[in-house]
Amino acid sequence: MRGLVLLLSAAVALCGAAPALEPVTCSVDGLETTAVRFAIQHINQQQDHGYKFKLSEVIVVSPTQKVQGCSIVMRVNLQETKCHSSDPKHFEDCEVRHAGGTVVMAGCVVVLSVQGDVASVVSHKCGTTKDEEELRMCPDCPRLQNLTNVEGLQRIGGVIRKYNVLNATEHYFVLSDVGRMSASYIMGVGMNYVAEFAMVETHCPVGSRIAPEACTPLCPDRARHIFCRNSENPRGSRLYCETYPAVVCGISRYKPF
């Protein structure tokens, strides 16, 4: 690809980024803040693909007293951020997508159980939608493509192969998740394709005879993650990547794509 530009940015350690959560209690005072924050953190921790979400609107928080605690049912609207699920950044520090970036919202119903000083999420259910008003007001804005788009996946595969040849220093990387693919027309340039995707470090050393696509990820405490944004049009391509260190205090949820 012509004009390939690669920028690597080291991120902070994965397991020390999240500020401590205030305890969730059955007291009405501060319930909306503590319970909602606890719920959103849980939702983001369950994400093994896609992007992190942050609060857009609290619709209702309804506690019900129980014999040894309470049950809390809440409805919240969340907004997708630019932080991939593999990004160690805390969700509250992530930037949301703005108009022109195809805003995605999530409506969630979450049920919490609080017993003494221990809170847990009993269930959560979220449904995502694209901002239809944005689509009407900005017909020339990039349009999201299906994540199974064959041509888009082929472009991503080509980028990863080139990355492994030019930039991998210890081990090869494989695709772990496709976050977004979009297409738009640029006047005087032509079609512009943008893909956001994540890679995970494998056990195959650079120079191995094994095809990188057949390699399996390293153990969670050793595997680095890379999140990239690649854009291509008739004038060339540009690739920007961030590298995240291995998970050292949790179980990896990432599998090869």
UniProtKB/TrEMBL annotation:
Any one annotated GO CC term: blood microparticle
Signal peptide stretch: 1-17
Gene3D superfamilies: 3.10.450.10
Keyword Ribonucleoprotein: no
Species this chain originates from: Gadus morhua (Atlantic cod)
GO molecular function, one term: cysteine-type endopeptidase inhibitor activity
Upper taxonomic lineage: Eukaryota, Metazoa, Chordata, Craniata, Vertebrata
Keywords, comma-separated and alphabetical: Disulfide bond, Glycoprotein, Signal
One Pfam family hit: Cystatin
This protein's name: Alpha-2-HS-glycoprotein-like
Domain Cystatin: residue ranges: 35-97
Gene, per the UniProt record: LOC115555905
Domain of life: Eukaryota
